[in-house]
Amino acid sequence: MGTYWRVRLAAAPGADLSALGDSVQTRLDDLTAQMSHWDETSLLSRYGRAADGSWTSLPDDFAAVMEAGLEIAQRSDGAFDPAAGCLTDLHGLGPHPRVTPVSDAERREALRLSGWHRVTFDRAARRLRQPGGLRLDLSGIAKGHATDMIADLMTARGVRHCLVEIGGECVGRGMRPDGDPWWVDLETPPGLRARPLRVALHQLAVATSGNYVRGDHTLDPRTGHPVTHGVASVSVLHARAMDADAWATAITVLGIAQGAQLAVREGLAARILAQEGALTREWLSPALERMLAD
After folding, report:
1. How do residues 259-282 score in pLDDT, each as one tens digit?
2. Which three-class secondary structure string do you get for the chain?
3. Quick one: CA dihedral 259, 264, 266, 268, positive or negative?
4. Is the separation of the CB atoms in 235 and 271 below 8 Å?
5. Does any domain span residue 157?
6. Alpha carbon separation from 255 to 31, 170, 180, 263 (Å, rounded)
7. Residue 52 pLDDT > 90
8. Residue 152 lies in a domain
9. For position 256, which CATH number holds?
10. Which of 4, 54, 137, 236 is most exposed by smallest CB count within 10 Å?
């Protein structure tokens, strides 16, 4: 996934942390082999090369991510779209960087081949049909799913108290050894002035989307253009990191006004930070305000 992972945990005396770490890495390697946009041998990449009209069987993880991704695509009216891989590749945001400008004709062709509405997903059989030229990009949701899965792995290994982080997406389970919850500071992009905001991840996840780490890499899958409306970061708290990840991406694409409307409609606990000239604008959703007041 091109990032790091970290697990903080309350371990029993004599626990084999080396074996636990190996289990985490093995699980992440499997998820990467399924859904990596950067690995040409991954199942996701092979689906993009599959023959028109063919069906690809999906493992449970891939199927769960597709089901959630398609639902959020529908509910966000395409602001989040797991089937925008052609656009990602066109702009050089995948494994092959681009140095020349994108033409209108190229963008129109990529839009023609893209879109969640072209996806046929057989949920019962856990398989995906290739309509022709469609490529997936699960970068805005798979990392969140991986964070959830590592937290579940900790539970399966008898670890009830842990904080799992993968590239900034976090899941907190149980409590710290000192009895406190797992406290996490919401990310504030460099150069922005915003009050520090610390949240307790007790059976909760948080994901943050923004352009402040990799530059302008967020695309609006509905238009094929980079997002340039001034939203610097969006943080979403949710029961699942997978959902938080995808919703944060959708709100980032929509911008502060429409993104706020979406967060209110969906009951999301969200913070939006936007740059407006020399000023920083912060918006907290009602759900997050209530959470902070409790």
Report:
1. 999 999 999 999 999 988 878 899
2. CCCCEEEEECCCCCCCHHHHHHHHHHHHHHHHHHHCCCCCCCHHHHHHCCCCCCEEECCHHHHHHHHHHHHHHHHCCCCCCCCCHHHHHHCCCCCCCCCCCCCHHHHHHHHHHCCHHHCEEECCCCEEECCCCCCCCCCCCHHHHHHHHHHHHHHHCCCCCEEEEECCEEEEECCCCCCCCCEEECCCCCCCCCCCCEEECCCEEEEEEECCCCCCCCECCCCCCECCCCEEEEEEEECCHHHHHHHHHHHHHHHHHHHHHHHHHHCCEEEEEEEECCEEEEEECHHHHHHHHC
3. positive
4. yes
5. no
6. 31, 23, 35, 11
7. yes
8. no
9. 3.10.520.10
10. 4
Domain, as residue range, for 284: 163-293
Beta bridge partners of 166: 5, 169
Contact present, 111 and 224 (Cβ < 8 Å): yes
Whether the CB-CB separation of 282 and 269 falls below 8 Å is answered with no
Q: pLDDT of 103-156, one tens digit each?
A: 999 999 999 999 999 999 999 999 999 999 999 999 999 999 999 999 999 999
User: Kind of pairing, strands 162-166 and 127-129?
Assistant: unpaired
Structure tokens at 71: 């639902």
Query: Which residue matches tokens 């999906």?
Result: 58
- Say what the pTM is: 0.94
Please give the pLDDT value at position 230: 83
- The CA angle 270-195-184, to the nearest 5 degrees, is 60
